[in-house]
Amino acid sequence: MIVGIDVETYSSVDIKKAGSRPYTEAPDFTILLISYKVDDQPTKIIDLTASREPEHYGSLLPAVKSDLPAGDLDEFLALLTDPAVLKTAYNAAFERTCLARYFGRSMPPEQWCCTMVLAATMGLPGTLEQVGAALGLEQQKMKEGKALIAYFCKPAKDGTRHFPQDAPDRWETFRRYNVRDVDVETTIRDLLARFPRPQVEQDAWVLDQRINDRGVALDPVLVKNALELDRLYSGRLLAEAKKLTGLSNPNSTAQLSHWLEVRGLEVESLDKKAVPELLAAAPDETTRQVLRLRQELGKTSNKKFEAMDRGLCKDGRVHNLLQFFGAPRTGRWAGRLVQVQNLPQNKLPDLATARELVRNREFDLLELAFGSPSFVLSQLIRTAFVPSEGCRFIVCDYSAIEARMLAWLADEEWVLNVFRGDGLIYEATASMMFHIPKDEIKKGGPHADLRPKGKVATLACGYQGGPNALVAMGALQSGIPEDELPGIVKRWREANSSIVAYWSEVEDAAIRALRGTPSTLAHGVRFSCEDGYLFITLPSGRRLAYYQPELRRDPNFDKMGLTYMGTDTGKKFTRQKTYGGKLTENITQAAARDCLRDAMLALEAAGYRVVMHVHDEVILDTPRGTGSLEEVREIMSRPLSWAPGLPLNAAGFESDFYMKD
What we know:
The protein is an alpha+beta fold and 661 residues long. The protein has 4 domains: 2-196, Ribonuclease H-like superfamily/Ribonuclease H (Nucleotidyltransferase, domain 5, 2-Layer Sandwich); 218-385, no CATH class; 391-400 and 590-655, 2-Layer Sandwich (Alpha-Beta Plaits), CATH 3.30.70.370; 413-495, no CATH class. It contains 27 helices and 20 strands.
């Protein structure tokens, strides 16, 4: 038996800013409507407002006639708590969280399946409305929903709340909207059922739900004091800027731009890239100081501490930091709320001292010892994540996983041999590129200046990248002259001929599949077309899906190129172009993601508790006296049955707070 579920809720907490757990912990959180569909039966609705006390909800008079099938709460609860019944929802994490909170019952994730994940797996866009439109469903999500949610599910601008009796006709439309969402969700679910996923993917989603349910502890004193220091320091900078400029709000781009123009500067922008150029052209010290203050004020927001504060739950933890299959092409996880996938690296030599000074509110001493508070606070963001009481963090990550995976897929043997040996890939790459012994390129060697070139080439060139890719990876900041970039690309490609050949093999295989001829490359990477999709089967058995693929002539290269429907950087579902290098990137990153998936499943099976993971790194909340870094490294480095010959290696450390070692 299978039941599709959708709930409509009310809370005064902004779910987009705080997340679903604080949303449901609000005193006024409640479920308003529950719609559910059992197998092929008509969708039923339970209106929970109808049975509540009149002083809270009043009456629905004047009555609005409804032909919607009425649900039964006892029946629904029996279905909800029956382990044999599979529950589905679009973004099932939300339904699980709301129902668990409202009914005070656990919602084991192994009894659930998320239709949003099914859609993402098939290369479809993110929202229920977008998926319905992309699939051309006869019955679409009702467009009135956004306005109705704003009216019934959120406080009004003046803080008041709207009840069903305030707008009976709108309430009936809202009820129909709730039912329609279940109908659309279950239609999508049933349409996608013909594309089965490996069981390990459902197992990984279940683990993801457990990780998000588990959450990770925060140091509330550090977070509170970091916000206080940021407020005090920003206020001090702003006061100085006001004194120097005479402006009422030096943070105003319009006001400051006018002030600078009066002093002889042409101002097109005041963003981070523009200010250094303005500083170089500043006519006097006062102008330079104002611009330096502008730079510093731009650093002091520390939005991640604010996100932590909003997301902090009653259990002292922050939850739902990761979204399963958040990256639509590869299936990698995406960061949410605090955005842990995008944390500043810490480079302070003594993090422990700095964080203790902030915890003890010794702000003057902190600034004296470490300099700019804004810089110090950015360094301490990671350290706000702490282990549970009586535990320590074991932090362990894969070493150069993408470079290893790419070399394995393309059978670039010299790179694999490096990883089977000392693993010094940047030095080895520079050695191959410049024909100089690797020992001379190591730190302290006579040609150590070549190591940055090997590093940036390794990071930028693997997916058909050229000079622009080198720039994006920091080549210029590494001191590499711009006129050397084309030569670096050329040398890297000459040294990695198997990878270069692999780009063409991948592109040719994809085009052949679109023309009706499936093909398989090394390590079981298979290209095929089925029911309007181009599928790329990974070595792990998981498939990447490209929706509505077409060959179209690319005028830039005067040849046929591969296109598909996908989500662009602006979150618009539109036709995308791809090519051999980009497809190679998708395959490599997806296969590396599957390494992390299998490692986390193995770690949990061994008794470790994953509370967070960042890129290719796991953070384990481990009781003192149990487990070890050595065992974690061994588990993560085990050979994978689906990747024979792939040399995996992991390294890490133990700590009383999270950091980047």
